Amino acid sequence: MSKILVVDDDLSNAEVIQMVLESEGFQVERICHSDQIDPSINSFCPDLVLMDILLDADDGRNICNNLKADRSTSHIPVMLITAMLESQVDNIACDADAIMFKPFEYTVLVNKVRKVLHSAIKIRN
């Protein structure tokens, strides 16, 4: 069972995403504050970080780049979600493995999560 860390400062969005992913058999930890990311990664050891771009005190693109630059977390795929326009997302270069634009159907989200996880496993092997 893959473990997914959901990071979204909108509690209702995070709860719905958690419910959808858990109903598909994923183990999910949900956090709503960017300062909880490092402790959650250390304790939960996620196989994927699913994170909103616009967070309470930071930008998910910057957090993603920091995770990818750190040897201890660079292997963890990061999938960003956002309500921003695609042209706005490109304002900050980002090393995310995938980006989904809101609104999206939850079946599409689940399929994208599976695809990103599958790709990460293929790369590691």
Automatic annotation (TrEMBL):
Q: Organism's domain of life?
A: Bacteria
Instruction: Identify the Pfam families for this entry.
Output: Response_reg
At which residues is 4-aspartylphosphate found?
D52
* Gene Ontology biological process terms in this record: phosphorelay signal transduction system
Record InterPro entries: Bact_response_regulator (IPR050595), CheY-like_superfamily (IPR011006), Sig_transdc_resp-reg_receiver (IPR001789)
| SUPFAM superfamilies attached to this UniProt entry | CheY-like (SSF52172)
Limits of the Response regulatory domain: 3-117
Alphabetized PROSITE patterns for the sequence: RESPONSE_REGULATORY (PS50110)
Q: Which UniProt keywords apply?
A: Phosphoprotein
Membrane spanning segments where?
Answer: none
**Protein name per its UniProtKB record:** Two-component system, OmpR family, alkaline phosphatase synthesis response regulator PhoP
Q: Which organism is it from?
A: Pedobacter terrae
What lineage does the source organism belong to?
Bacteria, Pseudomonadati, Bacteroidota, Sphingobacteriia, Sphingobacteriales
